[in-house]
Amino acid sequence: MEFKAKDIAALLNGVVVGDPEVIVNNVSKIEEGKPHTLAFLANPKYEHYIYTTAASVVLVNQDFSPVKEVPCTMIRVASAYEAIAALLRMYDSMRKRPTGIEQPSYIASDVTMGETPYVGAFAYIGKGAQIGHDVKIYPQVYIGEGVVIGDRTTIYAGVKIYHGCVIGKDCTIHAGTVIGADGFGFAPSGDNYDKVPQIGNVVIEDNVEIGANACIDRATMGSTRIRKGVKLDNLVQIAHNVVVGENTVMAAQCGVAGTTKVGSHCMFGGQVGIAGHLKIEDRTMLAAQTGVTNDVPAGSIYMGAPAFDAAKYRKCYVLFRKLPDLYGQLRELEKEIQTLKLKQ
Amino acid sequence: MEFKAKDIAALLNGVVVGDPEVIVNNVSKIEEGKPHTLAFLANPKYEHYIYTTAASVVLVNQDFSPVKEVPCTMIRVASAYEAIAALLRMYDSMRKRPTGIEQPSYIASDVTMGETPYVGAFAYIGKGAQIGHDVKIYPQVYIGEGVVIGDRTTIYAGVKIYHGCVIGKDCTIHAGTVIGADGFGFAPSGDNYDKVPQIGNVVIEDNVEIGANACIDRATMGSTRIRKGVKLDNLVQIAHNVVVGENTVMAAQCGVAGTTKVGSHCMFGGQVGIAGHLKIEDRTMLAAQTGVTNDVPAGSIYMGAPAFDAAKYRKCYVLFRKLPDLYGQLRELEKEIQTLKLKQ
Amino acid sequence: MEFKAKDIAALLNGVVVGDPEVIVNNVSKIEEGKPHTLAFLANPKYEHYIYTTAASVVLVNQDFSPVKEVPCTMIRVASAYEAIAALLRMYDSMRKRPTGIEQPSYIASDVTMGETPYVGAFAYIGKGAQIGHDVKIYPQVYIGEGVVIGDRTTIYAGVKIYHGCVIGKDCTIHAGTVIGADGFGFAPSGDNYDKVPQIGNVVIEDNVEIGANACIDRATMGSTRIRKGVKLDNLVQIAHNVVVGENTVMAAQCGVAGTTKVGSHCMFGGQVGIAGHLKIEDRTMLAAQTGVTNDVPAGSIYMGAPAFDAAKYRKCYVLFRKLPDLYGQLRELEKEIQTLKLKQ
Q1: Together in a domain, C301 and C332
Q2: Which of these, B170, B269, C188, C294, is most buried using a 10 Å CB contact count?
Q3: In this structure, are A30 and A171 located in the same domain?
Q4: Does the beta-carbon distance from B85 to A196 stay under 8 Å?
Q5: Please, which residues 48-87 of chain A have a Cβ atom closer than 8 Å to chain C?
């Protein structure tokens, strides 16, 4: 498909600066721009690319003012990032999605299946499972007994969902993720451990996206709960009885230990670790690799391990890097005091 | 099923405080207690919930003495945590387990299969594999050539076990875990690397539990070995030729590099990393996110990266957080010395 | 098979010290050596084992001179590590590899398949995929629409490759790894997030090895790219639009955030984390658990989080461990100055 700059501007409610008739037929990143592609500039770090990009059209923020001539046509929009996301959604929605039930697949006789399903080959749907409308179950997925999956949810290849778990509507779960494996519960018994059975489940609410090869364990009793709008990246670990609040976002390789309650609208960088039995209040932001060992009040920005206020942490870390200097200064003062004492 | 408080007390060798006739039909967490459920109180952090819980019956430790009136019937037992674990085991043992061989599955012609197996659909069992009695192999499991699996072991959906590995009796391996992939061995060869073939295997002894999406690599030569009673959580990484000693427990996302020997009865928090070729002696405890770069003597409690004694680490970290103050004090002393020098 | 020491020496261009007629029929590690096995000594840390090993033959570096009598026959070679690697490759190449197409498997009608393929049972190959010659696709692998796989590549059990990704020649991808899942891209939209579709792909060049349960996300636009000769260990996370340069090696559980460019010939220890939108130049070495938050110049050796020069970091860390002493010294100086002031 081909579009003129002026057509895209009309679609996005933007203003063309340059040739409105220039044609694009694909998208590209501004730093890898090619003729007849559309790129975007949202992150100021990439601004210098706009003066040399080969892309024919670049979406820019309304308030962007070039410091020299640009070789491309620009379209000014309220938010370049939101505009490109909207365009990608249009583009993506035109991709043909699989449908129908491929063979061989295994669907237990009493499964409830909604309209227009996709069930890939080698997928397994256990007894009593309830699958909503327009659900896409890719090949090699395992859905245990009594699992419930809401309308329009997509489960990519090889996801494993243990018995009794509940997945909401409009969710996306990427390949290899495991939902509902046993929580890590063992009671010491002499020199050994006895397993504490994990008889709860996992409940994932609507509009949740979970990356690839992540793990969300079932509760010992009750439910491990991922509230609506949560986004979890690849290889994230959520332990038994954790609750993750609405619209919280965790980058890859984060881990949250048992029974911790994470508030809503939190943002965690990659590789963050949170100890068990804690309360992380709403709108907490944690830098990558932060290790949290205590409750965190609402709106905190923390880093370090054990974690504390990020601005304070950065100050301490600047001085950590200067410790050899400080050590030298301390030695110097000792000498001066010695000298002073001798002079007395 | 329904039970009276007095029946549960009899079962657990406990003493009823309150109404012995009250009926429960399910379990709950004390903080989410509902009428006609049984909860427990083991962690003192949760003690305040007992004064408001809606649970009808709560298991408590013998030595618990309430500071005000409790709204529920209590059952005093030697250990509330062990008692609830025992009850959950009874409850769990009544859940019906799958049995039989589902179709389609792939079982090579010369596989030895014990009595009363479960083999889920799309499971693959390669040539020469030996499967014990009462083994449960869930759907989409891959068992390579010559693998041996002991009696009563459960392999959840999608586990992959490479050729030649050995799994003991009474083990549980959760979904998505990979056992016996090649160790990470490459020999520099000019600007490139040549692969060092990994011709050893993995041996997992009896009564081991491994979480979901974990990785245990095969040895270069000989065996990577997980000794009896070990418990590994989700996403744990065990490299080639590692040995993990009896009853050692590692929380999620730990990683142990090649050839390191970990002793028995160790406990590692989440996201711990251990360098290669080290010896971690028995009963070592490592705080979450600890990074170990040297051998660790028996009974150590370590934290930090690089790791050292945890109590010492905490003292250092308190002063790390005070570095801006210390820096100020150092500047102050400099001034005072300047003043003293001028006065002389 | 059995070999005499002198035959092995001839094969490796080495020199026998001891009995040239002694026979070996297997390999072992020097610390676990058994009679009639061949071991090797490359790491000086293991040198003491050579004086007690039960192995019959040990490969040693040319420059190794024993400090006392050794109980075994030695073969001196230019590099013991390279020699054993070469022997293991010979040994490994004699292992019979699977071949043919097992049933049931799912191969879309328009798939292009090279000569002498292996396709395991329950493998899925989507529409338009192009599979090279001598490719091995193990059971339960998922290959999405239009995926291209080069000659002689091995895809182990349960790997999932999303639509449109490209894998080079002579690659090895271990079990459970997910290639081409959506990058983690969401645009804030009020209190919620809108998904940014990820319409790019992953390109993996020739001679790459990727461990088990790793994740390499597809690009938002364009390609996430793993250049030739790269080696990634288990559970590594590579985000959207990342580029990893030639022959770079990352140990287990590393994570690289979106759009970061990693140079060639870098070496990262385990659990390293790298923030997004950075440039890590060629031949950078990062200690395990390092956290990188800024660009890194070529040839750097970094550690810490946030990371800086490793030699400097170690000096700072030595003083971090001495902070209680420094604190005491600071208090002492204060007292001495007080005394001096009083005396004036």
Answers
A1: no
A2: B269
A3: no
A4: yes
A5: 81-82, 84-85
